[in-house]
Amino acid sequence: MNGLIYAFSMFLIGSGVFFFCAGGVGMLRFPDAFCRLHATTKADNLGLGLMILGLLFHVGSFALGIKLLAIWLLMTQSSATVCHLIARVALRSGMQPWRRT
């Protein structure tokens, strides 16, 4: 049973790493700042969430698990806020969203 929990935990952490890498590829490949922001915030939030869920199986105390969940909650809120602010500044500076032609 312990090996099964360890394998599931490693699967969650590996999935989180995959989504972090996908967000990085999105930053490099997408055509404009708005698409890049979307790729980064969505993929990083999911990646961090999966990694924290995988780490919850290995924490030694309930308090440490709550701290990990609080980090996830704060990062989710702060990344959404920062993404909104960057997109608003880009729109106000005259940058237009990419359109397929």
The strand count comes to 0
Model regions low in confidence, pLDDT < 50 over at least 5 residues: none
What is the string of SSEs from the N terminus onward? HHH
Strand portion:
under 5%
Label the overall shape.
elongated
**What's the gyration radius in Å?**
17 Å
**How would you classify the helix and strand content by structural class?**
mainly alpha
Describe, in plain words, how this protein is organized in 3D.
The protein is built from three helices and no strands. The chain is elongated. The protein has helices spanning 2-29, 33-55, 62-92. It has 101 residues and is mostly helical. The protein has one domain (2-92). The model has no long low-confidence stretch (mean pLDDT 90). α1 packs antiparallel against α2. Helices cover 81% and strands 0% of the residues.
Which features would summarize this protein structure in a list?
mainly alpha, single chain, 81% helix, 101 residues, 3 helices
List the helices and strands and how they pair.
Layout: H1 2-29, H2 33-55, H3 62-92
Helix pairs in contact: 1-2, 2-3
Quick structural overview:
This protein has helices at about 1-30, 35-55, 60-90. It is an all-alpha fold and about 100 residues long.
